[in-house]
């Protein structure tokens, strides 16, 4: 009789082991499937770059465009410049992962602003990952600043190694519309 119990216990143990093994294989398979979908989305570049905002330089010679690219798990932004008479646009900045803004606000707050002399370009928006003390223009964070003549860049994102800039830096570059947080 005791041998029967031992056999039953062994059989139950084998059954439980098989179920756990199946569950483990199923979980690992699901993880691999999600990883494959993410990798394919990354390799294919997501749905492509969609323009959000554009701004012509004061002299009308250059147009700046900020575009977003949604992928399976994140969102990236890039800024391109196109000079009048030239066909190709030049990518001057690509953001790190900026995550998804609130539902319904997909990229509706990012704006490009030229300084009056056309020497500087500023990118602002409400949904950027920025340093806690990053300067703001109302609800919009001052995110990225670009010197058009030298290519020098500043960014208030903790995800970049670019130097930070302040509200007074932006204002000293002729971006007088920037008023700061109320």
From TrEMBL:
The keyword Membrane applies. It comes from the Bacteria. It comes from Pirellulimonas nuda. Keywords: Membrane, Transmembrane, Transmembrane helix. This is Uncharacterized protein. InterPro entries: Quino_amine_DH_bsu. The chain crosses the membrane at residues 20-44.
